[in-house]
Write a structure and sequence with these properties.
heterodimer, A: about 200 residues, alpha/beta, Rossmann fold, five-stranded parallel β-sheet, three-stranded antiparallel β-sheet, 6 helices, globular, B: about 220 residues, mainly alpha, 9 helices
Chain lengths: ~200, ~220
């Protein structure tokens, strides 16, 4: 993933200016900065959910440039502003979203595997509206890693999680660092320490 | 291939979601019943002309559509699931899935209004040329769904969703409304099928232009 000279402005207000990032397989980056410095906005730009005002973000898999249309097969995101469907159960959410994305090779066995990883297998048939905020956060992890993404982005990765949940996140992070690229947006020094590099927004 | 399977999966998700939450269905049904009952009380024993009846018929369809069709996008925005959809589906997948879902909803609503109208106004609302009426309902529903879908996508991003939807929709739908009212009057008056062909040409052109324009515009509305 390569971001070159990325600037984002909302109504003439500059959120961040001229950010450049280059990450390859096995590398990880922490995005830090005070509240309102634009961490979540930068995450959205990198995830292809927002367009940059200036600059460009490019992706490549196995050395081949990746079209933005196909980015969804290679990216996983956990974030406070990402919500799953309350009227469906945990396993239904994963199944539906995987089908909408037209994932290949995601079967009930894989869904069971990720739900067990995040500790929600026992509650897989309950509606998400009955989940606690911590359980919803765990389900977001199951959704993010279901399709084994090359790029995993975690925005405020341990919010609402208990000790077991944080251990689960650490396991997911370690796994991702072995097989792909990891980006963590956080204010927590411990979470920033999971990554090999750091970029601080809003310093000037 | 993934485009079709993704679109199909999203329509299935929307139908299951609608059956469980009744976000749009209850609003549409309640509005149809209330509007038809109000017209019935207003007309009492009067014998309205076919042009008045067809006008009132499409007024009910218009305002019912305004009360429910925006839910397809507004409910995603209100529940915070818009970004989840953006993450898993291409803009064209979302557009066609929402368009087809709104088409099914509009068509069901038009059938419900027709049945209720024929029951309540059994003496006055008599369809003499069924082929004109069927063509008008099918093409009119397609046009309504197409315009409503893109307007709903725009309105979902705004703060004043409730008032903005009918205000934005009216000037866009006025051509469609005038044409379907005209064609319905011909069906009630028992005119030949060929007399409605110019109306059908307008309706087909409206649907194609609206759908093509919406498809090109949708990515910009959906993303930022």
């Amino acid at each position: 993933m390569t971001a070159t000279g990325v600037t984002k402005e909302f109504n003439r207000r500059t959120i961040f200016r001229d950010v450049s990032i280059s990450l390859s397989q096995g590398e990880s980056l922490a995005i830090t900065g005070r509240n309102g410095s634009g961490k979540s906005t930068l995450v959205k730009v990198v995830a292809g959910l927002l367009s940059a005002t200036r600059g460009k973000v490019e992706y490549a898999v196995d050395g081949k440039p990746l079209e933005i249309e196909n980015l969804r097969y290679h990216i996983g995101l956990v974030s406070p502003y990402l919500q799953l469907y309350d009227e469906f159960s945990g396993s239904e959410n994963l199944e539906l979203l995987s089908k909408i994305r037209s994932d290949v090779g995601i079967d009930s066995g894989r869904i069971q595997q990720v739900l067990e990883t995040v500790g929600l297998w026992e509650r897989r048939s309950d509606y998400v509206r009955t989940y606690s905020s911590g359980m919803k956060q765990r389900l977001k992890y199951a959704f993010a890693v279901l399709h084994r993404p090359s790029l995993l982005i975690l925005d405020e990765p341990t919010s609402n999680l208990d000790h077991d949940g944080i251990a689960m996140v650490k396991k997911v992070v370690d796994e991702q660092k072995k097989q792909g690229v990891l980006i963590v947006a956080t204010n927590d020094a411990d979470e920033a320490g999971w990554c090999s590099a750091n970029i601080e927004l809003g310093k000037h | 291939m993934s485009q079709f399977s993704g679109t199909y999966a999203l329509i299935r998700k929307d139908i299951h979601s609608e059956l469980r939450t009744r976000y749009a269905l209850n609003a549409l049904l309640m509005f149809v019943v209330t509007a038809v009952a109000t017209i019935l009380f207003a007309l009492r024993s009067d014998q309205p002309t076919s042009s008045v009846l067809s006008g009132l018929y499409w007024v009910v369809v218009f305002f019912t559509a305004m009360s429910g069709l925006s839910r397809t996008f507004v409910s995603e925005e209100e529940r915070g699931t818009t970004m989840t959809l953006q993450l898993v589906a291409s803009p064209s997948t979302v557009y066609f899935a929402k368009l087809l879902f709104n088409t099914v909803l509009t068509f069901s609503m038009t059938i419900a209004v027709t049945i209720l109208y024929m029951t309540v106004f059994s003496n006055a609302f008599v369809i003499k040329t069924f082929s004109i009426f069927a063509g008008t309902v099918v093409l009119g529903s397609l046009g309504f769904a197409s315009a409503s879908t893109i307007i709903a996508a725009i309105v979902a991003k705004a703060n004043t969703r409730g008032t903005l939807y009918p205000v934005l929709s009216f000037p866009i739908l006025i051509v469609l409304l005038m044409t379907v009212m005209n064609a319905t009057t011909k069906a009630l008056d028992g005119e030949e099928f060929t007399s409605a062909l110019p109306d059908f040409q307008i309706l087909v052109g409206y649907f194609l232009a609206m759908t093509g324009g919406s498809y090109l515009l949708f990515e910009y509305v959906w993303k930022d």
